[in-house]
Amino acid sequence: MRDIVRNAFSRSQLFDGKAVECPTRRFADQESLSAYADQEQSIGLVVTGVADIWCLASDGTRTLLNTVRQGECFGIAYLAGLSRMQTDVRARGVCEIAFISRAAFQTMLTEDPALLERYLTLCNMKLQFLLDRISLLTAQSCRTKLAAFFLLNRDERGFVRWHGGKDDLASRLSVSRAAVYRELNELQNRGWIALSRQGVTITDAAGLERMLFGAAKENHQENNQENNQEEDE
Q1: How distant, in Å, are the alpha carbons of 66, 94, 132, 179, 218 from that of 198?
Q2: Domains of the chain, first to last
Q3: Measured between alpha carbons, how far is 169 from 199 in angstroms, rounded to an integer?
Q4: Each residue of 5-61: pLDDT tens digit?
Q5: C-alpha angle 114/117/121, rounded to 5°?
Q6: Residue 98 · residue 26 · CB < 8 Å
Q7: Which of 112, 147, 155, 169 could form a disulfide with 212 if both were Cys (CB 3.0 to 4.6 A apart)?
Q8: How far apart are CA 6 and CA 184, in angstroms?
Q9: Is the Cα dihedral 160, 175, 133, 29 positive or negative?
Q10: β strands within the chain, DSSP E
Q11: In a 3-state reduction of DSSP, which class is residue 135?
């Protein structure tokens, strides 16, 4: 096994350093990884590079759900014949992926209680992540989407690093680039964030939260008023 593959397994929260003999494949920019994984009935582990996970809507629009990097997996929820979510995993630039067959992985789960525990923990984390993403994507404006994104993705210092810049951020939030640029400047002018070439530092988390939850409360009240009007009619 090549050192770079072994290193990817060592960084994996799921495999916890336990390398698995499996084939790898290189993908070109924007090539579909999930299509190959489905064809091979496998889960994927990123060896090198970066891949984006897109949600596919019925009208054909795409929303960026997540980004996976070295040591991170995709496709682990589709075991035992469970229905596949309408997602598409695509390479962002050239990347290399290790593929572990679903059958082999299921056998590993039955034979390794520690792996099973990590798998269940990771599935729970992914579920919580999706709930957070739903909350983010259902925000009503670009400003509230930015506030939710920064609060969810900050580190212990309140810093959110750019991964692809402001254009990538617009894709993640399904808003226009012009709106992102305008609202970033507005949030900075209000003293809630500080912009840099590396990313965003939250300077007033309480201010962001007040704005975010205040907007959510107003939206809830508007929905209640609309429902009451419909009942009266």
Answers
A1: 19, 23, 24, 20, 34
A2: 3-132 (2.60.120.10), 142-232 (1.10.10.10)
A3: 11
A4: 999 999 999 999 889 999 999 999 999 998 898 888 899 999 999 999 888 777 777
A5: 140
A6: no
A7: 147
A8: 40
A9: negative
A10: 24-27, 42-56, 62-68, 73-74, 87-101, 159-161, 193-195, 199-202
A11: helix
Tell me if 172 sits within 8 A of 165, measured CB to CB: no
pTM: 0.65
Tens digits of per-residue pLDDT, 152-178? 888 889 999 887 788 888 887 878 899
CA atoms within 13 A on the CB side of 149: 31
Amino acid at 133: R
CA atoms of 176 and 141, how far apart (whole Å): 11
Residue with tokens 């599935």: 123
DSSP code of 50? E
Instruction: Show the tokens assigned to 222.
Output: 């508007």
Distance of CA 51 to the CA centre of its chain: 10
CA 48 to each of CA 36, 81, 228: distance values in angstroms, whole numbers, following the listed order: 17, 28, 54
Using only C-alpha atoms, what is the Rg of the chain?
Answer: 20
Q: Please determine, for residue 147, whether its predicted confidence score (pLDDT) is greater than 70.
A: yes
Q: Which two tokens stand for residue 78?
A: 């589709």
